[in-house]
Amino acid sequence: MRIDSHQHFWKYNAGEYPWIGKGTPLERDWLPADLQQQATKVGIEGCVAVQARQTLEESRWLLELADKSSFIKGVVGWVDLQSEKVVDDLAALSKQKKFVGVRHVVQSEVADFMLKPEFLRGLGELHAFDFTYDLLLFPKHLPSAVKVAEKFSHQRFVLDHIAKPMIRTGMMQPWKDDIRELAKHKNVFCKISGMVTEAKHQGWKTEDFRPYLDVVFEMFGEDRVMFGSDWPVCLLAGSYAQVHELAANYFKQFSTEVNAKFFGGNAIKSYRLNP
């Protein structure tokens, strides 16, 4: 099954989504029917819905959407990992079969945020529930992510958006070296997603991404990379079809087996999806 491992849904409200710019394509409701219309055109058969707000309420709402839509194969929601109630919250969500993982918007935090004792304590509870943890980072957070991946060697991690390198400037270091260190930990997967919004929104070219794709594929290999559209956020810089084509064109150089892993198999494995 061909899976989009990373996209978002929301009912737009300026107060709840302050990061959405006025006058952008994001400033409206985006729901499962909108995604399915675009995704099925390029052969995508299911998706993983990822949190866009840091509330338990949103996690529950995404699960309600998933109950109504067979297209949604899994939900990566938000839980306050620093809360004294984290085990209770995880236990409640674990009763929903489509809840597969947790994410915190670490990109908005200081570089060593993930090394806080309270955060580490909560992170350590995920393995008991067989939940994946999504790493939403900027390059400055990668050294901390390496330490976390080493500390929790039995925890599955998924790096979102290849850690958002500065594609618009072509900068590779220290991102490249830090990606190499993170990829040494076999419990870390990587989403090839979110790249167009890190490039020049209106002027990117296919060749802008190849150096970054080469690094990620070399470091993580065919068994730990997966396709993600980052729709509808990608609409700031490209259509769903363009984002899919960007990845598909790069993976034409590889076998049918590698493509099957990239466009579904690795997402199913990392998130324990039941497609």
The number of helical runs is 9
Number of strands: 8
**Sheet with most strands: strand arrangement:** 1-2-3-4-5-6-7-8
- Summing up helix and strand content along with how strands pair, one would put the structural category as alpha/beta
Helix content: 25-40%
Distance between the termini: 7 Å
- Give the overall pLDDT as a whole number: 97
What global shape is seen? globular
SSE sequence, one letter per element: EHEHEHEHEHEHEHEHH
Q: Cα-atom Rg, whole angstroms? A: 17 Å
The main β sheet shows up as:
8 strands, parallel
How much β-strand is present in the residues? 5-15%
Question: What's the structural blueprint in terms of helices and strands?
Answer:
Layout: E1 3-7, H1 32-39, E2 46-50, H2 56-68, E3 72-77, H3 86-94, E4 99-104, H4 117-123, E5 132-135, H5 142-151, E6 157-159, H6 175-183, E7 188-192, H7 210-220, E8 225-227, H8 240-251, H9 256-271
Parallel strand pairs: 1-2, 2-3, 3-4, 4-5, 5-6, 6-7, 7-8
Helix pairs in contact: 5-6, 6-7
Account of the protein in words:
This protein is of the alpha/beta class and 275 residues long. It has helices at 32-39, 56-68, 86-94, 117-123, 142-151, 175-183, 210-220, 240-251, 256-271, and strands at residues 3-7, 46-50, 72-77, 99-104, 132-135, 157-159, 188-192, 225-227. The chain has an eight-stranded parallel beta sheet, with helices on both faces. It is globular. The model has no long low-confidence stretch (mean pLDDT 97).
